[in-house]
Amino acid sequence: MSAKIIDGNKIAEAIKQWIKAELEKLKENLVLVAVQVGENPASRVYIKNQKSSCEEIGIQYNLVQFDSNISEDNLISEIKKLGQDEKITGIILQMPLPNHINSRKIQMSIPEEKDVEGVTPANLGKLLYADVQPTVAPCTALSVMECIKSTGENIKGKEAVIVGHSEIVGKPVTLMLLSSLLDSATPTVCHIATKDLAIHTKRAEILIVAVGKPGLIKGDMIKKGAIVIDVGINRIQIKDEKGEPVIDDKTGKPKMKTVGDVVFDEAKEIAGYITPVPGGVGAVTTVMLIKNLVNLYKSESAS
């Protein structure tokens, strides 16, 4: 029997309805400011999606752009100015930044009360406290947890394997899985130095993959009935039966498709639940950003 598909679009829609209800009660104009340094095609896509989602829900989205040659000190100064603006509810820093700028330094300059991505040391640190619900947390990690929760399965004691140990997915997801004093899963974190990855993934009742390497996890690396959460978003060429790139007649360039880190067609025959790519974790991530924004406002209003 094929795995049940975890529908990210359906989860996202339910969260949107919660956000709209909260905004109706708050009756306030929330403002999200995105900071972009230089030009980046991928960034433009994210900005477009964020703006569209905010406008659909009724949140003001402003883009502040800086030249790619801005100095690190000047950028920190500009971020601090934005942080002091009482009209701004939250700030998001678009990645990547130019090579001469240390992204962690810039993230640290965002006030924690306006850190809509949950990436400042203060907000990340709150994830260490069991049974304490943080105001905000990294959006992709929150999306992973929403996808797991949507299955209705109890995670208590379950073997969870996280492949990838980034600050925005692997590490915070691990802490979230340990967030209950009594009902936590049992997480193992794998990374580039892990020996024989399949030994770990084959015993995972919950498998979370966030590496950015298409085809990394094949069907024979998955435990039967597992919950598989594929965070990877990769663009690859479409190949014909001979393994040659399929060329787009209009552009003359190879046709591309979006895939995850898991070989979906193999995995869905083994797993109990699985997120598709696209339409899984990514679909939930943007609305989690807006939910963070609402929670920031509510937290500040209550203080």
In short:
With 303 residues, this protein is of the alpha/beta class. It has 10 helices and 11 strands. It is 37% helix and 16% strand.
How would you explain this protein's 3D organization?
With 303 residues, the protein is an alpha/beta fold. The chain folds into 2 domains: 27-112, 3-Layer(aba) Sandwich (Rossmann fold); 137-284, Rossmann fold (3-Layer(aba) Sandwich). Helices cover 37% and strands 16% of the residues. The chain is built from 10 helices and 11 strands. Strands 1-11-8-7-5-6 form a 6-stranded parallel β-sheet. A 3-stranded parallel β-sheet has the order 3-2-4, sandwiched between helices. Strands 9-10 form a two-stranded antiparallel ribbon. α2 links the parallel β2 (31-37) and β3 (60-66). α1 packs parallel to α10 (281-302), α6 packs across α7 (170-177) and α6 (139-150) packs across α10 (281-302). The chain is globular and about 55 Å long. The model has no long low-confidence stretch (mean pLDDT 94).
Order of helices and strands: EHEHEHEHHHEHEHEEEEHEH
Oligomer designation: single chain
Count of individual beta strands:
11
**Per CATH, what is the topology of the largest domain?**
Rossmann fold
Secondary structure tally, helices: 10
* CATH homologous superfamily annotation of the largest domain: NAD(P)-binding Rossmann-like Domain
Q: How far apart, in Å, are the first and last alpha carbons?
A: 51 Å
Rounded to an integer in angstroms, the radius of gyration calculated over CA atoms is 20 Å
Read across the widest sheet, the strand sequence of neighbours is 1-11-8-7-5-6
The class by helix and strand makeup works out as alpha/beta
Number of domains: 2
Give the amount of beta strand, in percent.
Answer: 15-25%
Instruction: Determine and state the CATH class of the largest domain.
Output: Alpha Beta
Gross morphology is globular
Biggest β-sheet strands, sense, barrel? 6 strands, parallel
Proportion of helical residues: 25-40%
CATH architecture of the largest domain: 3-Layer(aba) Sandwich
Mean pLDDT: 94
